Amino acid sequence: MRSELCIYQLASGAVEQVLATGQLIEAPNWTPDGASLVVNGDGRMFRVPLEAPELLPIDTGHAVNCNNDHGISPDGSQLVISDSTDTGQSCIWVLPIAGGAPRRITGQVPSWWHGWSPDGTTLAYVGRRDGKFGIYTIEVEGGDETLLIAGGGHYDGPDYSPDGTWIWFNSDRGGSMDLWRIPACGGAAEQMTDDDRVNWFPHPAPDGNSVLYLSYQPGTDGHPRDRDVELRLFDPASGTVRPLLALFGGQGSINVPCWSPDGARFAFVRYRPADA
Fold it and tell me: Which residue ranges traverse the bilayer (predicted)?
């Protein structure tokens, strides 16, 4: 399978291929300075400078089983990773963006990171506790986790709105996998999409006027890779959906925040058979 790291231009719909590799890479983050993308692959983390794209390894110390739930602090100084090296299950760590020894954040596992608050103080993530999935937050400096919502079914993909007031997530708590949001300080959850598609990983745009997400065909179970999927844009004000791009992807395409700082573009990964 070949991985293609790409950028989508929102105004024109044009797709630019940044890098292609025979290595499985996933989940691009955009650095706040707009100069690089960060991806994971084979348990490690890589920086891809846009001026001269290549996979440059990031030193994550002892953490060498990183998954595709990672991101960058709003000020660009820190990298958050989800890694299972020490615990055997996904655990959240923070380290300098240039690399270095990671600092453990979550005491309980499994925990999968997905969002960093705009003020830089708080992380949002998915946890499984006593067999139940839920959306949690925790201070970057550590401490006790706060449960926002949990229950039967699945919860995933929490990402902050740019003003920090909402956390968007996906869940099948309403019977099918749709987009939801909940006040970041806690409160009642609101269902935002309601269609026959299987919708995952909402990422609010920097201006707050739209939400990018991954949409599977009806009847899809979970969020598998190597499927025909769509990247779609949801308008919270009108409730309308705009399909942007059909691609072969799924797991690994946009698991984590992937917007450019100016909101004009976003990054994603698509996949192709090696002989295609």
Answer: none
In a domain, 266, yes or no: no
Would 273 be classed as within a structural domain? no
Q: What is the pLDDT of residues 12-40, one digit of tens each?
A: 999 999 999 999 999 999 999 999 999 99
Q: Is residue 18 part of a domain?
A: no
Q: 243: which strand partners?
A: 232
Domain containing residue 191 = 67-256
CATH number at residue 247: 2.120.10.30
Position 220 in a domain: yes
pLDDT for res 261: 98
* Assigned token pair, 11: 């105004």
The per-residue pLDDT for 274 is 65
